[in-house]
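Q: What structure does this chain adopt?
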Amino acid sequence: MRGLPYTTSLEDELQALWQGLKIALEHNSHLYKSESDSEQVLRMLNKGNLHYNSIIFECKSLMEQLENPALGHNFRELNRVADLLAKEGADMKLFDRTEILTAPPVFVNKAL
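A:
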C-alpha cells in the first residue's frame, strides 16, 4: 500500500480500504468480508461525509463490483498484524510504492 506521510488517520483508513478493494478487484479475488478498526470509516460508508465523499463513492463503487462484501468492525487490539505491518512500512519510509505480500514477514509470526 502507498504510504501517506501527510494525512490524517481517517484519510489513511479510507485510502487503505480503497487500495485493498482495488487490489482484490484487479486480482479477481472474491472478497467475502472487509474489516476496519475505524468505526468512523464504517459509519461514513453508510451515511457519507461531505469532506470524504469522493473516496467514499470510489469505495462503494469497488464494493459493488466485488458483489458487496460485508463490512465489519475489528477492534484495534485484535488487529495486531496490521498494526505491525503499518509501523514497519512507516519505519522503512515506503511512501512511494505498493507492496503486496504473499506470505507474512517473520516479524509478525508471533502475532498470528
